[in-house]
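Researcher: Re-running this chain for the archive, since the previous output was lost when a drive failed. Same request as before.
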Amino acid sequence: SIMTEADYCDENITLKDSSGNDIPNQKRYTCNGFVNPEKTSFDIINELLSSCRGALVSPNDKFKLVIDKPTNSVFTFDETNIVGAWNISGAGVRQRKNKIVSRFFDTNNNYDEGVLITTSTGSTNFYADDNYRTLQADLSFPFTNEITRVDILAQHFLKQSRLNWKVSFTATMDCLKVEAMDLIGIKHPVVGWDGFTNGKLFRVNTVELLSEDTVKITAEEYDTSVYTFDVNTPPASPTTNLPDPQSALP
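Model: Regenerated structure tokens:
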């Protein structure tokens, strides 16, 4: 898994600078920084993973590296394998952000600490959507030293924070094949997610084996718009197929 994700990071892509200009033939993710031996191994690994949106998961007795990236659904949950009660929550002000303040060691400033502010502009205005209330997150990217790459990572974090739904539910044992960071579909009429071909897409956070021979899944909403290089990219799919509650038909 580490070799696979390393190859993904090494692929050449076209980045965009803060003015929207193309920067061709750039590695998708790079890792540039220094390791402080006074920190714990866990903290150092998390700092390294911050440069590529990576995560370590442990589906068995070994660790597996997974990068949060566009991918395909590996499993569909529906009325046949979801059992028991649901827990569905929307994003509140603690999760939703409209301003990201990123700190990094700037290669263009003799590696002194740089500060970058990322927010939405133009037709998409998260600040206005939040009733002009600043919802800020302070991030640190100790292994990313180029302002363009910091901006892209901050954009991804910002757009992901705007996704609404987090779910947890209990499923049958045959769903144990699903792992953390897998992409899944949830197809259920109660929440209006039955209109999607393979269900509404979610990224799995945790998979827990319960004593009743069932599996508890927690996941959060997924959308491909998160992974573009433009903070104003609109969501690719609707939140639900249920009718608009603010529009009452005669």
